[in-house]
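=== RUN LOG ===
request id: a7f3
mode: sequence -> structure
chains: 1
length: 254
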Amino acid sequence: MNYIIPILLIIIIIFGFGFIRPIFINNTFEQFEESDILDMYVITLGKKERIQNIKNQESKINNKINIFDGVNGLKLDINELIKNNILDKNHKLSENINHSKREIGCYLSHFNIYKKIKKDNKKGYTIIFEDDFIINSSNLKDDIKKAINKLNNKNIDFDFLYLGSNQINYGENIIDKLYYINPKQKLYGTHAYVINNKNIDKIIDNVKIIKNPIDVIIQNLSKNNIFNTVIIYPYTVIQNKSFKSSVNNKSDVI
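=== RESULT ===
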């Protein structure tokens, strides 16, 4: 009879561990599940020097970045876009026709990624780059995961996490290098940011009609507290100023 008690204890331990272990694993997985899912896309029109830049940035983080074909704005028909309720007829884009077409192309390139996130029902988060980006961190993905976890721990349900801007913009400190944006400062440039995929419906609903360049509309909606936008500062990604802007170029050549 003395051997029965040890056997019973062993059985209890085995079944107990089998019950407790999945709970522990699930709790751990839930804590990091979303921040572990980081899709990365870079928008490009495929220029040789831009493709080389993408490869250079990939080597810094030892990670492949998905190429996302940009929209060539010069091939767009402005009247058709207005007719199809894609472009607001009272839009505030550049008065230069080629410049405005490039702004629309840039806008639609970002919007097409938003639609892909929704269509594919992507979980977690999506990093969006433009092909003139320069990464300033060798541990960018880890930096972003840590940032997201810190925001989650603060119960901050962000829509956009900016990794850089063309201006210095940081407002109230959240924690460490994470800040709310400063509504009194400009927030131009969409060369590097993170989208919280679970808020993609809200994002699409607010940007589906083109009224301003994409960076301006995100800035304005953020300043009006429609989007919850936070920013990392100092910036982890900057824009390569040696490249001629694909948007601000007013010529009829790509």
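=== NOTES ===
Confidence is low (pLDDT under 50) at residues 11-32.
The first helix runs from residue 4 to 36.
=== END ===
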